[in-house]
Here is the input.
Amino acid sequence: MELNTIKDAFDRVAKKQKLSTSKSQEVIDQVGHELDQALTNIQSIQDPTSPADQKSILMELKAKLNAIGPHNQLEGSQKELNINLSKYPKILEKTFNPDISKAYRNVDFDPHIVNHIIASHFYRVGLFDVADTLINEAGEPEVISLKSHFMELHQILEAVSVRNLEPALYWVSTNRESLKHIGSNLELKLRRLQFVEILQNSTQADALNYARTYLAVAWHGLHMDEIQKLMGCLLWAGKLDRSPYSELLSPTHWETLAEELARQFCSFLGQSYESPLSVAVSAGVEGLPTLLKLANVMSAKKQEWQAMKQLPVPVDLGKEFQFHSIFVCPVSREQGSEENPPMLLPCGHVLCKQSIMKLSKSSTRTFKCPYCPLEASVAQCKQLYF
Here is the structure.
């Protein structure tokens, strides 16, 4: 919503600036036309030494310029532009509060884990020298074990970027049994791209020999539809781009393959595909506006939110940042926590522990479920673990 407000304000400024520029150019053209006309009239005077004729032309020019009124024409559009332009920085300042330290909370971090996350991130993005320096200065030698693996991944991806599949195929063949165990068809996708490359850049016979060696034998009848499609491509050797199978030439197949290869490689390392550091920073950027608003409101009420164990407002980060189940009590609207865990009632409904305690008013008294007629006691409720 706030970004939309900024965009609308920017669009207004851009529109007014465009109108102002157009109006300015129109006025300049009018003035230029009158100046050119006056200059032509002066040059056409038969007696150049006659000051009266020149004076009359200049007086006529002055009258025409006064009639045009450049200042009056430009004043309105320029004033509207300046008004919108002066408002825009205020909107930016209001939305992008530069003092983000207000949202800072004192949290005890394990330096070892933080160093490990940062070094791993540098390895992921290929900044191996930076990661090595951090490891040496922080004294975290065990992290360097990831270096060789990520170096191999980068070498594979660099080769794929230039359509060289040999390093990727070597890695897949080395881990073939493990990939089959998880139902991966990554090798087939690699072989398919390799087959299409051979068909495009070599002969039909070379493509057929490749298919017999790596496709028909390797899958023993599996993925038959895919293999039959590739065999159909043999009829279109040299003109695959004009065939019913032209979509196999799309660059998106290479991009998708590179991403899937990276995902499965990271999975084999026991690492997530997305860098934990990148995810944490992105989530922080998403939640920062809400946290800044909360900090400002709490400061205005002279309340300290730093000591709160649970935020009093929800921070919506989107589904891409949800990695585990979250329970919100339907009665109190509070999110479950270790101190206030979700509890299963005998009737099957779930409430947070504090809501149950308020309903029962005693650990021995029974209470009615707020969502059905059945009654229960605190002892009958079981804690749920998400």
